[in-house]
Amino acid sequence: MTLRLRRTALAVAAATALPLIVAAPPIAAQDDDHARLIEDRTATAGSDKSEAPQVAPTATAEQITVDEETEPVAPGLVHTSFDQYGPRGWVRADVLTAELDQPGLALDYLSSGQVSNPQPLSQMLQREPGFVAGTNADFFDISDTGAPLGVGVDREDGLIHAPADGHNTSLTIEADRTAEITDVYLEAQVTTGAGSLPTTNLNSPSVARDGIGIYNSFWGDVARRRTVDGATNVRAVTVTDGVVTSNTTMPGEGPIPGAAVEIVGRDTGATALEDLQPGDEVDVDYELKEPGPVVAASGNVVLLRDGELATGNDSDIHPRTAVGIDDDDDRLIFLTVDGRQVNSRGVSLVELGEMLRDLGAEDALNLDGGGSSTMLAREAGEEPAVVNSPSDGGQRSVPNGLGFHVAPGSGELTDIALEPAQDQEGSRRVHAGLTRTLVANGHDETLAAVDSAPIWWADPMSVGRVDRPGTREETVVVSGLRRGTVRVSATDRDAQGAIKLQVLGPVERIDTDVEQVALPSIDATRGFTVRGYDRDGFSTWVEPRDVDLAYDRAIIEVTASGSGFTVTPRVDSGSAVIALAVDGVQTYLGVTIGLVSEVVDPMDDSADWTASSFPSVVQAQRSVVEGRNGAAIALDYSLTGTTATRAAYLNASPAPLRLPGSPQRVGVWVNGDGQGAWLRAVVVDASGVNSTLNLAASVNWTGWRYVSTTVPAGLQGPLTFRRMYVVETDRNKQYGGRLVFDDLTVESAPVVDVPDVPAVEDRVVLKNAELGADRWTFAVLSDAQFVAAQPDSRLVAQARRTLREIKAVDPDFVVVNGDFVDTGFDEDFELAQRILEEELGDLPYYYVPGNHEAYGPGDLSNFRAVFGEPVRTFDHLGTRFVLLDSSRGSFLLGGFAQVLLLQQALEEARDDSSISNVVVMAHHPTEDPAIVDNSELSDDKEAALLRDWLADFRVDTGKGAAYIAAHAGVFHASRVDGVPYLINGNSGKAPAAAPSDGGFTGWTLVGVDPDAKQAWLRAQIRPHVDALRLSDPGVLLPGESVDVSATVVQEGRQVPVDYPVSASWSGSRHVHIGPAVEARPRDVATYDPESGELVAHREGLGELTVTVNGASQTTQVAVQS
């Protein structure tokens, strides 16, 4: 029976109970040009996702284990994978646990058959039948011969190679099936007529100084002269069947015949071989000094000895492979840890030892790590596959490994493992009305594959059904019928298996995993997958059979492929739109074919460019200098004078540059100065929204280099290029320099016009309704971003205005969700405190820090001095609030203790009958709704962990959960796995999206009904209203209809009164608010806020009124016959 354990609940290793901060008391019972210039909504610490976030080592041992899955590989052999999150970041690990006393299971040495011929581990496992799992083993001479440094003992061939001096510590398996970590040594000699010559090496990558090495047919093709590089006195004696056949000063090349050995000496070892002549008889003997193990392979550092750490190296972080032995010496534990990746940082040797000890090891040895770390394992009824994530992006060729072999079983079907046919995330989910394909992997008692064509059925049949029940098939299609869990079973002879699928609600919207399919040439192909979402945000990928496609077949061909589709072009240049429909729900995907590179500006005229800087102490000047081929523009900058974030800009002048076609990449030649500044660029879409792109994470080079970046697909064209700039966020780095720019270039594809899809409207936002008297309320504001140096600025005025509007509606309390200030100096927080106290009076507030609260000092020390600790929890009328610190871009960088605090707060709320709901708040959203998704938590796995925790809490307890953030410069709401995610837009700083997409200033009023199960949380999004306009419907005839709309005017922005703006519509006595079908006999007209349609019914007069954030506008409704 296949066992699969997927644990989304979490385990904490060595965790001490954290005091939960409950009922924490609330705090207290410039102009906008710089904000637009710095564009640091994307310049937050940790925003580069190219590698996993790391922090300095700490003494704490808390680790959170998630996503743990366990699969049997063979009787006595189990594979477990898991992720672990701790104070130093994420690691992903895989474990093979083997019972050495299990009959039929054996560990053996793996190789290519030639010591000097590395190859991928998967090929080694395929050399002989019966191998089901394995890992890489020894360190090796990676840059030259490829030979391992330590010992290799094979069950069949015995001693294959011996350890070089200093590489003796090895894992050994004895004939009694016990394991040991011990030092092994070569005992070898060459006996001639003159006596015995001690021998230092056997098939080693190099011969020891003054030593003699033996090379036999196991060595391989690599020239033996490479084993004596640098030696001036060398001898190579070939012995066949005990007789010398040659003695030269040049070691041989190519393979060594099976009956021959080559004896290679260097220095004094070479001298000892000089007198041997062809025809001389020579005996060559070699073995290990101690009684020989049946299997052996070497490592380097002992990690554990008798359960105690045997290494102190806690600084070098790398991918790792290691092996441990339990206290009875009959259980092996192989461990690989991924590293040098965004999902896994790697571990130190100390951490590696601690992990193995936690897994049950008493003794442990480090094996070769880095890019060599590889583990393969099979699932029941399948072939071995790579289960870890090698840091090189794929398997590295290695010289040897250790593999588990299983004796042949009966070959009779004993069990069936049922799995989704496609191994994709979410494959155990299916939408109601759609399908999922399952496959049956039959196996015998050893888990070896056996053909099976079982009979399938589903239970309950009201939730899901199988196609063609009662027929025997290796695969089956399961149809979801209604929301719930369906158990799909299969039986064949005496074998059976089962799998549970979660049936989601019907699809309400769909999208694709790519914004656009960009094909650079007719020879290219690209794939995409379709994903569906139900009304509660539960999602999964959609099988190709459930997707209807429409497209121009003269331009492209689209074929189903695995879990998605492959697009193949049929023309050299062109564009097309794929219309996709799933159960009547549509979306569109643009396809472009061909690329054209064009220099949009040669950058040889200073009149076309201007320099600017932020803040004012930063210096920036532009000039014309010699370029690559002619003139170029130099930007001289000085990022000094302040510890706040600094930037120097080179701006296209007098207006942004038009980018031709559909831009795919934009780049420029840069003569670098090696100072390490972050180089970025800004493009502007047709709606005027800026998108910031990364040209180089660090200008760490000198001389000319071409740098470019991808232009995100989906930006509304035509696009323009606004500026490029250098930015420094590290307060400790103060420097200046010169960058020279030449030939701004764009790679463009043909334009593709993709139809718009209606924006998703989440029901957490009240579009046309009041919160109601049954809800208590709290207010959220964020991103005012003023500075103390300008206490009378527009931004300060906007902050004060927002607080006054909040005060007027009398919420229970206020949450300032970050970036209230622009820099975090003492004087900024003093002004912030004064503003809050003056405007709110005795209204309680909580202040959650954003990234700007740390700008300048580089930490929250000044924030703490005025507003206290940034992380806290409190309960209010049945709702638990958890306020977190994401000021450095992630929760980890704000202190791992708050992650444990969140965990504890959720766990305690599960069983606390006084808690009905939990609201988590932090400045950074888990996902930026913008196409350029820079304004979100920098650690995707951390964001996913938060989403999993909240979803699990919601599903397991039935209680409400929500996450409220800010930072993205847009008002937005979404839903993931039943949990609403609300983003509060800016209160002062200019927004980062078009007004119709939530890009306006304002605040949010949140209402909570502690007794409601589904609609427990609702929000009113309240824009600032400088003016409110309501269109005039004119005079209507009975039966006529007209669209009536409202617009909020704020600082030159025209904001449609439509989602996500919250409004209240009301009518006079005979003007009904609602659909026309609800009209009463006395009604003059009806107005439907959802459609915007005003329908005239009978002669008369009335009034229609709209109210937004306390401001109202009324228009007359006149109907005449």
Q: How many individual helices?
A: 9
Overall pLDDT level: 93
Any idea what the shape is?
globular
What's the CATH class label of the largest domain? Alpha Beta
Radius of gyration: 35 Å
Question: How many angstroms does the end-to-end distance come to?
Answer: 79 Å
Strand content: 35-45%
Task: Could you tell me the CATH topology label of the largest domain.
Answer: Purple Acid Phosphatase, chain A, domain 2
Strand pairing plus helix content: what structural class? Answer: mainly beta
The CATH superfamily of the largest domain appears as Metallo-dependent phosphatases
Summarize the amount of helix as a percent range. under 10%
For the largest beta-sheet, the strand count, sense and barrel status come to: 9 strands, antiparallel
Low-confidence stretches: 1-23, 28-60
* Total domain modules: 7
Biggest sheet strand order reads 1-2-3-4-23-22-24-20-21
Instruction: Provide the CATH architecture of the largest domain.
Output: 4-Layer Sandwich
Number of strands: 79
